[in-house]
Every structure is written in C-alpha cells, then in structure tokens.
Amino acid sequence: MALKREDGRKASDLRPMQAKVGVVPNADGSAIFTFGDTIAIAAVYGPKQLHPQHMQDPSTGILRCNYDLLSFSVSDRKKPGPSRRSQELSKMTQWALEPALDLEGFPNTVIDVEVQIIQADAGTRTAGINAAALALAHAGVPMRNLVCAVAIGKLDKDIVVDLDKSEEDFEGGEGPTDFPVAKLANTDQYTLLQLDGKIQPERVKEVLSFADESCAKIYEIQKKALKEALGE
Predict the structure, then answer these.
(1) What pTM did the predictor assign?
(2) Which of 160, 146, 145 is nearest to 197 (CA)?
(3) Would you state the pLDDT for residue 156?
(4) For the chain, which domains are there?
(5) CA distances (Å), 147 to each of 32, 38, 136, 181, 185, in order?
C-alpha cells in the first residue's frame, strides 16, 4: 500500500518553501527560510576583529554560530535563554557551514551567525542552516558554495523527506527517526550527517538519495532569493 502522509505529500515531497534575504536591516547579511510552518531567521555580523585578543588566530578567522528557539515558537512555551539542546545545535550549524567558507582570508577575525527559530514545526536545524547559508552569501562572505540542508525521516518502514512535527513524533513501528543532512550544493560533499533514532546501515544510501534530490530543490529556492535581492 502506498504511503499516506497526513498533509497529502508523497514520500519525496518537501513542504512549501520560502526564502528572502535582507530581512534584518542592521546586520551585515540576513535571511529567512521556511519549511512549511517552520520559520528560521539568520543574521550575520562580520568579519570583525575578534575580542578578547588572546582568542585571535593569525592564520584564520573563526565562525561562531548561535541557534535558539524563541519562547513563543513552540506550543509549550520554551524557557528563555540557551539550553543544552540549543548549544548542541549551534555547534551542528557551525560544523555544517564551515566547509563552505574561506576563513583563512580573514585572520584574527570572527564571523557571528545568529539563528533564531520564530516558529517551530520540526526541521528547525536544517531550516536554520539554509537561512544561515543565505545570510552569509548576502553579507558578501567568500563562499565555495551554498549549503543546503534537509531532514530525512522514517515512518514505520518508509523513508520520507522533510518531517513535520507529527511525523517527527511518530511512535509506530521502530519509533521516530530523524536524519538531518547538509551538503555543499551540487556536490557530493556532505557537511552534516546526524542521526536521531535508528536506521539500517543498508538504507543510508536511500536516505542520501532523498537528501540529494531535496537539496537540489532547496538550492533553487536559495538562488532565487539571492537573484531577487540583486535585482532589487
């Protein structure tokens, strides 16, 4: 029997996506990216001189990322301020983005990326990475490529793309599985592979095939947002 998702999507279908750059006027670069009801805003500040001075690296700049959910972004009000989870996802965001950047061209500096989730319906870390990549490009930071990210999941035995919250909490079969993937656009270089849950090793190729197809679609949305900004 064919898989039926609550919102009518096929297994390989992403939720509706929107992207726009230049949404935070006082930032050096900024962007918004959405997967359905999940909305992420990213703002970039820098490159700027790193303080305190003892943290500076004369051979390269550094990237600092801060990811957080705003208190009103989830149905059960989140306690304000950083949590262990947000600190973990901040590092995931940093690691996903660093391979796209030429930080050696900016010694002794820092680039700060702030990612805020203003509405959460699963896929927040991947939406945040997509927004952050756009914001870095909008800031004029030299990049080898854009970074595209999507969460692949499993509903019972079916691999599906871009889980929403009800699917992320799916308890049937082998339980919930969330497999966030990030990669440099139009390449075979993955910058993030993270697994929450269980999946058979022989199915990882299937996951990556879904991710490659999805990231190609995400890249088109990102390019469109940047071209529209240049047109303006």
Answers:
(1) 0.93
(2) 160
(3) 80
(4) 17-231 (3.30.230.70)
(5) 14, 18, 10, 10, 6
